[in-house]
Amino acid sequence: MSMRAEVVYHLARRDVVKFLRDRQSLVATLVRPLLWILAVGFGLRRAVGTGAIGVDFVSFLVPGVATMAVLFSSMFSAVSIVWDREFGFLKELLVAPVPRATLVFAKMISASVTALLEVSVVLLVSPLFGARIDPLGALLAIPVLVAFGMSVSALGITVASRMKTFEGFGGIVNFLIQPVFFFSGALYPLEGLPPALAAVVRLNPMSYAVDATRGLCVGVHHFPIPLDAGVVLAALALLGTLAVRSFSRMQA
After folding, report:
1. Helix ranges restricted to H, the chain
2. Predicted confidence (pLDDT) per residue in 109-135, tens digit
3. Is 72:114 a contact under the CB 8 Å cutoff?
4. Strand, coil or helix: 138
5. What is the pTM for the complete model shown?
6. Which residues are CB-neighbours of 143 under 8 A, at least 6 positions away?
């Protein structure tokens, strides 16, 4: 194993182990998307029906909630950079003879792994709530969710690279994450939206991650799935480059 691969492995493993050892945070993280399915899925199931979306609303909602889980988990995973800066570990990383891009990649990998743990719980438990998910489609959606998680983590790293306090990071992230989520179509179909809202949704990379996941899992999608995958990969390339540039300029 090369030195860079070892660095990625050990840094990513460190973050994943830290996540798994925080039992309270782990339980809260895993339960949160299930509460969304219960509250929103069953709360609006009868009102929405199946006519407008072609499937049961709970089945329609599960891919959106799974993508939401990736969004929240991957974005907030970048707080570890602020934490490491606060306690001096970041200074050790920045002076190590390792390219900054390698450190960024390790953070992105660990964020995707922790997010996939959450997604796995959502997809495995969702049939208990009556959702009809295609198992093969769910497996095919995993690479899309991994790429989306890495792109969101890259955005979080870009923000964390400029923050020196937890409060500052939390404020900026909450400002960014809410419109990304609510303007993604995670909770509603994209057909028939007002023109202004439809334009915002089309500019949001999460819309394409939700659409691809929903298309693969339940067979309902608005855009061609190759277009969804292409937009997600383009977002990953753009945000990954931005994260490396921001992280390379930061001072411990």
Report:
1. 3-21, 23-36, 42-48, 57-77, 79-87, 89-95, 100-125, 135-160, 166-182, 195-203, 205-218, 225-249
2. 988 888 888 899 899 988 888 888 999
3. no
4. helix
5. 0.89
6. none
